[in-house]
Structure to design on (542 residues):
């Protein structure tokens, strides 16, 4: 049987993409993985489209130098602005989180009254709004930029009065809008899920695309005969552009016990 | 009389340094000024010392290419980590905001029980703590990292319930400490002054160094015969590393009516 030992590359502006990393590691425990977080330039969510494209391309090149077989842009902001350009310019398959996010949302909604919670740059790109309107022209979409959620997650203030109040600040206007589904279209936002749940009406489904993203990658690797069939223990390499204790600390928050940063097959490095 | 028409260069990681720019423009209305905000890589406050030094050096080089006669590092994080290196490597005088911050604090305190409110990187550098202890070994110092204040200021949530709650989150522990002075050791923090005032006991003096910083520069220029004696209207040039509407919007928040971005002697450009 064909197999391909080369690692899957996973990119995010910081540590948020580790939620996607974790789903991939859970679903494909035999795959070698290499993660890169651009901690020297985060956050991307308040940068311009040009800066986002340039940074994402530079980070993709770093991961390509690790001989990856597939690249995952595990950041909605980077996926929104840079995915088509990367898909055109790179010789390997490139997956983003926007398409699975969109599909999760369409599967979950019954009334087509939906909210997109994301960074300012993702909302400004209109990528979700355009995809939804193409599939469902009558959809009523509430795009909400929640930039402070990123800072709250980075400061590890997930379950705090401050998180609750800021969630209320952003999401209060949704209360009367009878939405049935809200998409967490930023990899940081699942960490604030409790605060978000408290503010939205109880019947609103809150969804995130990490699991579907991992599933689509698995299907693609199987169909293309690119899975790793080696029986040796896979390696998990983590890289960050800024050498800061912060990355390691935050990584622990994002990674569950299923990935142990101190195990011998896990490497934490810096560019 | 000797004079020097070359501009003063003012650097910040973003728009916060415009509080210093404004003081310089107010005190020295005849001087040409060129401002550079590294909006493509902000914030600096949660980056590593190496990254902060490298970025500050690159930005200083950009300003040097505008033939500046003096450089002001109008960012506490950059001043804390990069000032001595810049002073050693550049051929022009370099001023920071830490020394005036320290002097303001020592002038204001009577009891020598003081708080330093700053970014995580500034607090970690211990630069304020070391300066204060050298001058006053018995001082009782409360260094408080308030990283979310930067995000709140950038999102223009200055006077909001969220700002009040986050101020309380950071500053509540100070209430029982009988401090008499708190230094705003980040150029973003003056925008959150009201929220900070509400949380600290009424008799605490809240100080910021922008005005003393401008005064020290004026004294230096006079003593060195480097002031601009030309009678023509001076130019104010603003540059940012990321071409984003955000910079212009935020700049308006920081700059008072005394500087009009639409006047003919004001230029807003991008690197």
């Amino acid at each position: 049987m064909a197999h391909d030992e080369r690692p899957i590359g996973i990119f995010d502006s910081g540590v948020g993409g580790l939620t996607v990393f974790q789903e991939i590691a859970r679903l494909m425990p035999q795959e070698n993985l290499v993660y890169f977080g651009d901690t020297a330039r985060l956050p991307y969510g308040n940068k311009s489209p040009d800066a986002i494209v340039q940074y994402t391309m530079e980070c993709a090149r770093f991961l390509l130098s690790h001989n990856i077989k597939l690249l995952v842009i595990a950041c909605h902001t980077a996926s929104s602005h840079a995915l088509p350009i990367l898909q055109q310019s790179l010789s390997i398959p490139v997956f983003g989180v926007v398409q699975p996010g969109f599909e999760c949302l369409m599967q979950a909604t019954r009334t087509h009254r939906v909210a997109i919670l994301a960074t300012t740059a993702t909302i400004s790109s209109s990528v979700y709004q355009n995809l939804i309107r193409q599939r469902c022209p009558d959809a009523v979409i509430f795009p909400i930029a929640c930039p402070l959620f990123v800072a709250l997650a980075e400061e590890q203030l997930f379950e705090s009065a401050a998180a609750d109040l800021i969630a209320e600040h952003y999401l209060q206007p949704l209360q009367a809008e009878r939405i049935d589904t809200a998409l967490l279209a930023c990899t940081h936002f699942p960490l604030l899920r409790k605060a978000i749940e408290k503010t939205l009406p109880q019947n609103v489904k809150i969804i995130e695309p990490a699991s579907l993203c991992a599933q689509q990658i698995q299907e693609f690797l199987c169909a293309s005969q690119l899975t790793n069939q080696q029986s040796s223990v896979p390696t998990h390499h983590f890289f960050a552009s800024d050498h800061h204790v912060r990355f390691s600390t935050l990584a622990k928050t994002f990674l569950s016990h299923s990935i142990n940063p101190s195990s011998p097959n896990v490497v934490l490095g810096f560019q």
About this structure: The mean pLDDT of chain A is 91. The two ends of chain A are 35 Å apart (CA to CA). The first strand of chain A starts at residue 8 and ends at 12.
